[in-house]
Design a protein that fits this description.
- By secondary structure, the protein is mostly helical.
- The chain has one domain: Tetratricopeptide repeat domain (Serine Threonine Protein Phosphatase 5, Tetratricopeptide repeat), CATH 1.25.40.
- It has four helices and no strands.
- It is flat, with a radius of gyration of 13 Å.
Length: 91
């Protein structure tokens, strides 16, 4: 990923965190979905940044009352983190 694309994704992630902290999970959710989708496509599903993005999206979904979707995403993310840890890749 080139540095401009990395910066844009980072800014989207930070904007989503800001909106979530302000109690605005709906607009944060669309940003987090974009960040998670982009990181999955560019970095891969098991990359630590992708996993963090998925966790953040699950937290936001829970704030929106979408608890089942959040639970499923959290469980999938936790399974990928555990698999990564077993392979000795950390995070």
């Amino acid at each position: 990923m080139d540095s401009v694309a990395e910066q844009v994704v980072w800014l989207l992630d930070r904007a989503a965190a800001y909106l979530h902290a302000r109690g605005e999970p709906r607009p944060a959710s669309s940003l987090l979905e974009r960040v998670c989708r982009h990181r999955t496509e560019v970095l891969g599903v098991d990359h630590p940044d992708t996993l963090t993005s998925a966790t953040n999206l699950a937290l936001d979904l829970s704030s929106l009352g979408e608890h089942e979707q959040a639970r499923i995403l959290n469980e999938e993310t936790l399974a990928r983190r555990r698999a990564r840890s077993r392979r000795g890749l950390g995070n």
